[in-house]
Amino acid sequence: MTTLSESSTSASAVTVDDIIDRVGDGRFQRKLLFVAGLTWAADALEVLIASFVLPGLVASFGLQRTGTQATLFLSAAFVGMFVGALFWGPLADRIGRRGVLLTTVSLGVLFGVGAALSPSFEIALLFRFLTGFAIGGTLPVDYALLAEFVPTKLRGRYLVLLESFWALGTVAAALLSWWLFTTLPPSDAWRWLLGLAALPGLVSLWIRVSVPESPRFLLLKGRAEEARSILGRIAVLNGRALSVPALARPPKVLGASIGTLFRPPLAKRTVLLSVTWFCLSLGYYGIFSWLPTYFRSQGLDLGLVYRNTLILALAQIPGYLLAAFLVDRVGRRATLTAYLLGSAVFAFLFTLVVSPAGSLLASSLLSFSLLGAWGALYAFTPELFPTFARSTGMGWASGMARLASVLAPSVGALLLSSRLSLALGLFAALFVVGAFAALFIGEETKGQRLADA
Q1: Rounded distance, CA 238 to CA 236, Å?
Q2: CA torsion angle 291 296 300 301 (round to 10)
Q3: DSSP class of 420
Q4: d(CA 225, CA 227)
Q5: What CATH superfamily is the domain 12-440?
Q6: What residues form the membrane-spanning segments (predicted)?
Q7: Most buried of 14, 268, 280, 445 (most Cβ within 10 A)?
Q8: Could you give the CA distance from residue 149 to residue 145 in angstroms, rounded to a whole number?
Q9: Which tens digit of pLDDT belongs to each residue from 318-356?
């Protein structure tokens, strides 16, 4: 049983990290992981269904399967996510994580349903952009919030496990697409797919209302009593007897902006993280946004395409689990670098295969390694920024990924041409560049407490 004296003086004031570490891992952290993970899976479902609904858009609006309009549709949500990440991240550092998350999840549901009901391709394109704008705020802020509630020794594992919910969203996208497009005409199936993809956000929103604001954020804003109250409630939920003493006040800092990230001491890590996020995202989405269409070009019917996509999603799970183990055993930076270099090797392997079975094996290995890299990167990034700039930093890094995602469909279209080796060689080179950028960050956050300023 952990007990702290209520009569502690300011001289013996403790930090939020002290309290979180003493409260330890328990019911509250597991609930928060589930809530954040459900949101993460719902957002993955929303993001990844774009390539699955293309056959329905072709049937409904007479689009070309690989033309400019198809590429625009694949890119629309990513453009929205780029804008959203840069807008919502700094806002969360000013007004709080909780309010931004509730707003973005609500908007994501609203815009997702709007896309399903669109009477024209142009309206569908607009709603996909708006859906991305909402999701662009949910993803980075979710990570900042979870990082600020988890004990130091388990933070890396929790952050990777949160990223692993992306695999559940991928599985859901494949299963829903497989079911709908094999039972309904494509002109109807895409609407049902977009509509059903928006519904998990409602469940997430309902549960998320009970999640409190980050005590670290509250303390930074001078709301010490609210922070103490929330920490006390966490202790009760975790079954600990804890009387929270006076909390050490962090240095008063001005609100973060994007410019803050490019001033010492954050500038170096911001630049190198930007390179890593951009390279990983361009390679990942460049390959996987077009893989269903690539499988079709190999002569597979829709049922087999969705089966293959399901296999790729399942291959992500061991990649995440191994990353969750490694980030706390060997460190964030080493794990990220190893996964990125492994992804480069598997991308090169893809260029050597010629059969559908070989393509499936190579892409499964890529799925394993790339999603492990994502898990390590999402664990590493929020720990490299102080509390006053954590959501801003995550928003900027996520924005670099979304910028790459906008370019990815055009670059990835090389997969459908005779220049397969050129495309995969480019992606392999990107993974190598990203690995060296991560290596040169120089910081290792394993076992380190979060900085406030």
Answers
A1: 5
A2: 110
A3: H
A4: 5
A5: MFS general substrate transporter like domains (1.20.1250.20)
A6: 32-58, 70-88, 100-117, 123-146, 158-180, 192-211, 271-292, 304-327, 334-354, 422-441
A7: 280
A8: 7
A9: 999 999 999 999 999 999 999 999 999 998 888 888 787
The length of the chain in residues reads 453
Radius of gyration over alpha carbons of the chain, in Å? 22
Per-residue pLDDT at 143 exceeds 80: yes
Residue 325, CB half-sphere, CA atoms under 13 Å: how many? 5
Residue 14 is given by DSSP the state B
The H-or-E segment that residue 106 falls in is: helix 97-116
As given in the structure block, the two tokens for residue 381 are 């990034």
* Model pTM score: 0.84
Q: Residue ranges per domain, the chain?
A: 12-440
pLDDT digits (tens, 9 = 90+) for 417-450: 657 778 888 889 999 999 999 999 988 999 888 8
Look at residue 378 and give its three-state secondary structure.
helix
Indicate the range of 43-47, 304-308, 367-371 predicted with least confidence. Answer: 304-308
CB 428, CB 369: distance < 8 Å? no
Distance CA 289, CA 322 (A): 25
Q: How far apart are CA 186 and CA 246, in angstroms?
A: 61
